[in-house]
Amino acid sequence: MITIGIVDDHQLFLKSLSLMLASFKNYDVTVEALNGKDLQEKMASGKDVPDIILIDVNMPVMNGVDTTAWLHANHPSVKLVALSMNDDDKTIIEMIKAGSCAYLLKDTHPNELEKALAEINLKGYYNADVSNINYRRLIMTDQKKETVTISDKEKQFIQLACSDMTYKQIASVMNLSERTIDGYRESLFQKLNVQSRVGLAMEAIRKGLATL
């Protein structure tokens, strides 16, 4: 069984999610907490550390970013998954920097959630951008053994894109026009098979193209 922990201050959502996960095969919810501090206290009481922990981003007492950072530092083997209703780039990148290996919206379909958890358990991460790419396209790319060439300027752009800077600010830092930055973005989306800035950040970090 794959053990799961859930940290969310909305008790109705927490209990509903717990029941949903219990309906999936091979999953067992072993820890439920209302915030990061509550989780720390429960884990200090001797509860076993789960394989995967789902963490709400916005919580009182100890929020998702701080909770994720604490878990990443103290329990590095645990796979941490951000949960939120908020899909803005800044929040997502903050959670990735703190140590989360996936970012899921709370309105994610149960089938998608089960698929995500399976990939997280198997691969250690889940990137919806990459997972939604046409499978045949990936197979063809693998068969051709294509290599992705990333220029120094593109690497600089990737590193800045993993921050909370706007694209306009990135253009200013790189001393380039916004149109050129748009070109870098679209080119890298194609090269890394992603569809968003978040997908770009996650793939770049996973492939070692950017550091946090």
List keywords for this structure.
212 residues, five-stranded parallel beta sheet, 11 helices, 5 strands, 13% strand
In terms of topology, how is this protein built?
Layout: E1 2-7, H1 11-23, E2 27-33, H2 36-44, E3 52-56, H3 64-74, E4 79-84, H4 89-98, E5 102-105, H5 110-123, H6 128-131, H7 135-144, H8 152-161, H9 167-174, H10 178-191, H11 197-206
Parallel strand pairs: 1-2, 1-3, 3-4, 4-5
3D architecture notes:
- This protein is of the alpha/beta class and 212 residues long.
- Helices cover 53% and strands 13% of the residues.
- The protein contains 11 helices and 5 strands; from the N terminus they run E-H-E-H-E-H-E-H-E-H-H-H-H-H-H-H.
- The chain has helices at 11-23, 36-44, 64-74, 89-98, 110-123, 128-131, 135-144, 152-161, 167-174, 178-191, 197-206; strands spanning 2-7, 27-33, 52-56, 79-84, 102-105.
- Strands 2-1-3-4-5 form a 5-stranded parallel β-sheet, with helices on both faces.
- Strand 4, helix 4 and strand 5 (102-105) form a beta-alpha-beta unit.
- It is elongated.
- The two termini are 32 Å apart.
- 32% of the residues are buried.
- Mean pLDDT is 83; it is low at 131-146.
Would you report the number of β strands? Answer: 5
- Percent helix, as a range, is 40-55%
The overall pLDDT average reads 83
Number of helices: 11
Q: What structural category characterises the helix and strand content?
A: alpha/beta
Q: Per DSSP, what share of the residues sits in E-state strands of 2 or more residues?
A: 5-15%
Strand order of the largest sheet: 2-1-3-4-5
Shape summary = elongated
Sheet with most strands: 5 strands, parallel
